[in-house]
Structure formats: structure tokens, C-alpha cells
Amino acid sequence: MAGHGADEHPHGADRLCEAGDRVYSRAVRRGRLPRREAERVPCLMELALLHPDPDDMDWLIPTSPQEVMTRLLRGMYDEVRASQRRVGSAVAAFEWYAGLGRQVPAPGGASEGPAIRVLDGLARIQAAMDEATQACTTEVLTVQPGGIRREAELSEGLHRAMALRGRGVRMRDLYTHVARHGHGLLSYLELMGGAVEARTLDEVIERLILFDRTVAFVPANAERTMALELRHPALVEYLGTVFERLWRLAIPLTAPLPDTGIEGISHREQSIAALLAEGHQDAVIAERLGISVRTCRAHIARLSETLGAASRTQLGVRIAQAGLDGARPPVVIPPGRGSPTAR
């Protein structure tokens, strides 16, 4: 029966079938419903949206919509982190192979192959970017990590963006949530009009610029004074797929960030709590979220106060108890529970 249901209902909790939507909505309104009413929608049981009433096995109780939303958000964050790890591994591999390429002459006397080209120096990077811009005809996809975008950074590529806009090229940009607070970015988007669409995430991958799904540029060192120009179809397709998955999970810049559902804890503090639970240091968390270490520590102090933690060790326990580590749905922990609030 379960297998049959999976064949007829190939979906997840993020997009219920019409029958599942109708039955689950009815169960939420009533508080429970007879098991026989759910026989034609086995997907609801498979997705843990309905479960047996322990007091009467002939009835089913719905999982609360709040818990379902938390489960979906946790899955989204897991998918983002998995994509980031894969891209990080790929970039490291690119650097390693690029290093070998500099040591071994290419066939025919060429110093660089056409699939992966190492661009050493900002002038060379800018020249390659200008060349790709001139050849671009349909779309540009970019990932811009870090925090608030400085106006100087935005002005640096403005001439390329205006040239693309003039040819009707579609542009999509991914930023961290912190970038929402920069007036320079808002002015840039207003200037570009409908040619640029922007979305944000808690974290994004390292910088990526992809033209027409044919050529991509990624940093080749931490200082970003070297870059890799990638034209290998498989690599470019892979990076395009990563971008699309992140884009689907991101929030449009024009839409507000979702509420955490936990009184006294902001969306950013929820993200910091999850990274603390993974064991990251303050500097690493700040870099991944695009904020300063000082700002990061101020948020951690507020987390400690809200959760009633007097030490970092106790804060880790409180984060787990509140479900902010992503292991289970979050619950509210009243301030002052346990040890005195940290100051």
C-alpha cells in the first residue's frame, strides 16, 4: 500500500497533491479525522503529516502546520549546506589541477588549456570578464558572498551591467541576508530596473559569475587576486545547477525575512545558533554570514540573555533544548530558566 501511494503521489510536504491538501486541511480544522478518510491519500502518512491517535487507533491526528514548516526549513538549510560543501570541494580541486597545469606544458606549446584557465592579477581578471560580458546574450548568474556591498564594489562592475541591460540580458544575483541593509545595493537595483533580480540567503557559496551557461569565473585564492575561467561544459553545468538550487531556496530581496517563531530571537540569531551548535568559532560564523566579529558576538550575547545561559557551554545546551541546532522543531525557553542570565 505504501509503495502504491508513493507511485501515485510523487511529491513532498512542500507541494501536496490536491487530495492530500484537502484531507490534511480538514484534519487541521477538526483536530483529527477517521482513518478511513485518509485511505486514498497514503502520502499524508508517508510524509508524517498524519499519525494515529494513541487513544483511538481508528482516528488520525494531524502534525501541526508549525512543525511541518520547521521541518521544511530545516531541510532547506541542510540542502544549502550540502551544496556549499560540494562547491567548496570542487573549487579546491580546481586549484589543485590548476597548479598541476602550470607545471606541465600543454600540447602544442600552449601554456593554458581552453577548459580551465588561470587568471593571475586583477587586470587580467577584469579583461576576461569584459570579454565574457561582450559575448553574453541571454543571462548572467552571480553569487556575491560577504555582507553589505560597498558602493565602490558595485560601481566597479556597473559598466558591464549597463552593457548587459542594454542588450536585454537577464541578470540574477544571490547575496547574504546582511546585504539587505546596504543602501548602495538598493540604489544599484533601482538603477538597473527589471534587468536584475536579487535574492538572499543566510549563507552563500564563494563568489561565482556565470555567463550564458558557457563560461564561469570563481576565485582561485583567498585574496581573490587570481581567478579560474571555466569553460568545461560539465563544470559549468554543475555550477549552474548549484546556483539554481540556491536560488530556489533564497528569499526575494523585496520580501521580508521569515519570522523565527521564537520570541526574542531574530532570524540572524537563529542562524548563528545553528552554526554555534556545529562547533564553529565566532570569526568563522561572522565570515559565513557576512557580518563583523563584533556584531556576531553581540548577537551571541543576546542569544545567551534570551535563553538564560551563563556560559558558552550552557548556551550550547540551551540552543539544543530550544531546537535551534536544527535537530528538532524549536520550542520557547523562557529567560532565566536554570542559571542566571548572562550579562
UniProtKB/TrEMBL annotation:
SUPFAM superfamilies: C-terminal effector domain of the bipartite response regulators (SSF46894). Residues 258-323 form the HTH luxR-type domain. Pfam families: GerE (PF00196). InterPro entries: Sig_transdc_resp-reg_C-effctor, TrmB-like, Tscrpt_reg_LuxR_C, WH-like_DNA-bd_sf. It comes from the Bacteria. This is Helix-turn-helix transcriptional regulator. It comes from Streptomyces griseoincarnatus.
